[in-house]
Amino acid sequence: MARYTGPVCKLCRRQGEKLMLKGDRCFGPKCALEKRNYPPGEQGSRRRQRRLSDRGLQLRGKQKVRYIYGVLERQFRGHFATAEKRPGLTGENLLQILETRLDNIVFRLGFADSRRQARQIVRHGHITINGRKTDIPSCQVKPDEVIAWKDTKTKSGIYKQMAETIADKEIPAWLSLDAEKMTGKMLAYPTRSDIDATIEEQLVVEYYSR
């Protein structure tokens, strides 16, 4: 299954809520959901009136998490299978796995304006973990590991752009950031209270447990 390359604003309209897929633009008047708050397509305004079945709600909940983190179905299933094998609640384990992906942490540290941009930054070899270049967005980061920009990339335009705005970014408590050196560190695994409260992980569990 290929990665979705269409307008990400359509994903927000499909869900009926802002998924913050385009960074700061989602807060401004250019946000598509502000102009067309109904599903995309010719019959979008009519589909908005439909009542979803339990199965439909589970699917929407699962798709919402996938869209937010930018993960394909096959990889998402793999993350869910890993979450099932870990002790504790499967849903919370899944969110922890998604949060500790390298692309998400690059976004959380303020090195990118969106997860999509963070994924591109990682793939282009801009990021290191403990001094080693890592270009795999799904790489799992562990506590005490240091995330930084590769020395040869600190003169790039994207680095300079992020360095200018990073002071305005809000960093989660489970991460630490040295804004001057543009380096970050994972202090601990995130707990459920550290993760988006609007996500209903139980719907994902129910979807795959049917």
CATH level-four homologous superfamily name of the largest domain: Ribosomal protein S4/S9, N-terminal domain
**Structure class:** alpha+beta
- Sketch the major β-sheet: 5 strands, antiparallel
CA distance, first residue to last residue: 23 Å
% residues in beta strands: 5-15%
CATH level 3 topology of the largest domain:
Ribosomal Protein S4 Delta 41, Chain A, domain 1
Spatial strand order of the main sheet: 2-1-3-5-4
CATH level 1 class label of the largest domain: Mainly Alpha
Count of distinct strands: 5
Q: Which CATH-level-2 architecture of the largest domain? A: Orthogonal Bundle
Helix coverage percent of residues?
40-55%
Order of helices and strands: HHHHHHHHEEEHEEH
Q: Any idea what the shape is? A: globular
Averaging pLDDT over every residue, what do you get? 85
Rg over CA atoms:
18 Å
Account of the 3D structure:
- The structure is a single chain.
- With 210 residues, the chain is an alpha+beta fold.
- The chain folds into 2 domains: 9-98 and 197-208, Ribosomal Protein S4 Delta 41, Chain A, domain 1; 102-186, Structural Genomics Hypothetical 15.5 Kd Protein In mrcA-pckA Intergenic Region, Chain A (Roll), CATH 3.10.290.
- It is built from 10 helices and 5 strands; from the N terminus they run H-H-H-H-H-H-H-H-E-E-E-H-E-E-H.
- It has a 5-stranded antiparallel beta sheet, covered by helices on one side.
- Helix 5 packs across helix 6 (90-99).
- The protein is globular and about 50 Å long.
- The model has no long low-confidence stretch (mean pLDDT 85).
